[in-house]
């Protein structure tokens, strides 16, 4: 079987909200929250390291205003002692991200809107020019059926946990 990961690296990468929150905020601010904070309770510190390594395989990080807003809203639930640091890091990250705006009115016309909602309809629309990395298996499968480049977090995790050889 062909290594799917080799097909989906390089160029532009768009993380979904949970992975962006895990990789770029919580893991950098307070790794002890990984596995403890509700939105990233299913992840480990090793998962953070795997995502960080995967991100380095790409030239640009892409996001939409919808994803950034969702990450901000999720981060607002972080414990008070870590919020200032996380939001400071987030503000520095935002200016480095290639933010691609798709009007909400346009996204509501896409077939993905009733299936996945506004935040995930935007990556669906951009998936012809970026690799979408997501923890949502349903979204990943949908994008692949459309012939678009998407990678599921479990694939990234499994590939990186395999022994070299």
Keywords for this structure?
5-stranded parallel β-sheet; Rossmann fold; 165 residues; alpha/beta; 53% helix
Description of the structure:
- It is built from 10 helices and 5 strands; from the N terminus they run αβααβααβαααβαβα.
- The chain is an alpha/beta fold and 165 residues long.
- The longest helix has 13 residues, at 17-29.
- It has a single domain, classed as 5'-nuclease (Rossmann fold, 3-Layer(aba) Sandwich), CATH 3.40.50.
- Helix content is 53%, strand content 10%.
- The chain has a 5-stranded parallel sheet.
Give a short summary of the structure:
This protein is α/β, with parallel strands linked by helices. It is 53% helix and 10% strand. It has a single domain, classed as 3-Layer(aba) Sandwich (Rossmann fold), CATH 3.40.50.1010.
Topology of helices and strands:
Blueprint: H1 4-7, E1 12-15, H2 17-29, H3 45-55, E2 60-63, H4 65-75, H5 83-94, E3 98-99, H6 104-107, H7 112-116, H8 118-126, E4 131-134, H9 137-145, E5 150-152, H10 153-161
Parallel strand pairs: 1-2, 1-4, 2-3, 4-5
